[in-house]
Amino acid sequence: MLVLVAPGQGAQTPGFLTPWLDLPGAADRLAGWSDAIGLDLAHYGTQADADSIRDTAVAQPLLVAAGLLSAAALGEVTPGAVAGHSVGEITAAAFAGVLDDTAALHLVRKRGLAMAEAAAITQTGMSALLGGDPGTTVAHLEKLGLTAANVNGAGQIVAAGTLEQLAELAEDKPEGVRKVVALKVAGAFHTRHMAPAVDALAKAAEELAPADPKFPYVSNKDGQAVATGDEVVARLVGQVANPVRWDLCMDTFKELGVTALLEVCPGGTLTGLAKRALPGVRTLALKTPDDLDAARELIAEHSARQGA
Predict the structure, then answer these.
(1) 303 noted as active-site residue
(2) Could you tell me the pTM of the whole model?
């Protein structure tokens, strides 16, 4: 059984879309999306520097566009489940047919702008903690006033809060944590600091006409598969200010009988977590079009198993 997943913010790197635009129709598709949302996705995906694409209002639509573009290049895919990490949930909603591509990009554009505005209120950020016991780590974060914004499994938790709190964390790591790594994001996402963005996103969601998912859609809220389009959208709205439970998503993949996990562009983060948390599961990350042939082989093999 194949799971198709989409990465979240921080996966972007300068120029990562360049090779994808050589594919037939890709540049035209990206240009159409750019016109629709008022953002030059080709520029940011090929020419902009790291600081420019770190901007939340840019990074989020860029990541969704990259995921959709790379998935389209795969051809027909019938996964056993779909999921996305944080903003990748919007990409996954498009995979599942809950939103069409243009609606997904309109929603993520508004999400990115609203979260950037919320992040500007207070100087905040996020840091990844590697190793340690989850219970001990979460308790330590709470003591420092931080939130465990992403519980990613495979020994990784992401803390979020003010820059002062994160600086204190760097000096006072939880017991057992090997390393604290500041992330390339411009805010404390999935925490109370994002509450103003929830209202803006709820208003934007009123304009949507979601369909029910064609494949099981596994939610970051609790790792459960969501059956209706309305519920998917409601969770997309609320999830902005609530922790990402990717660990629970991977537990659900396991329960569903996952045999392969394919991560769309810019892949790598979620396959890395799966290699540690889902031993025996085949993983493949789409980084460039050179990965497409191997991805199609994986799809053919594991979709066949799903239908057996």
Answers:
(1) no
(2) 0.94
